[in-house]
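Researcher: I've been going back and forth with a colleague about how Membrane protein might be arranged in three dimensions. Neither of us has a model we trust, so I'd like an independent prediction. The organism is Asanoa iriomotensis, in case that matters for your notes. Sequence below.
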Amino acid sequence: MRLFAGLVLFGVSLGLMVRADLGLGPWDVFHQGVAERIGLSIGLVVNLTAVVVLLLWIPLRQRPGIGTVANVVVVGLVTDGTLWLLPPIDALPVRIALLVAGILANAVATGLYVGAGLGPGPRDGLMTGLAARGHSIRLVRTGIELAVLAIGFVLGGSVGFGTIAYALAIGPLVGVFLPLLTVPKGQPA
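Model: Here is an independent structure prediction for Membrane protein. You can compare it with whatever you and your colleague have in mind.
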């Protein structure tokens, strides 16, 4: 239940941040930029990117879990559903509220799905797989995030105040929610 609640909430959080239109997290700047260039929905690009990233796991000998596979399917579908249900919004105070809610929801969602212990998301597994090869996890994470942010920006993804807010807030927020939402060893997720 925690896994799927987290994945659904993650998709909703992305939809909220897209509707805020104040800037997205690095991977989502990439997803949005690709989506705008090739004419697909952002949710479909999220899912297709996850499949491509999973292929990068093969040489790293990473093994997906049920949570990994569910991530590939659920997050993008829920993102598109959220965007279908929530129309574009012009009022800046409402957009700021959507951004704050999206960042908070993203952190709670991460705590839920990672804390379920049923397999990392494709992008996190890429990071941990590269780090397991003897690279600093900080450098790997930073390098990946900067690369997808730069590519997404060039492709037209939304970079702005929300991008900075996400970058500054997500680590500390996940640091709070992950321990609270992690399933203790031996208990069902």
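Researcher: What would you highlight for our discussion?
Model: I'd start with this: The two ends are 7 Å apart (CA to CA). After that, consider the following. The mean pLDDT is 92.
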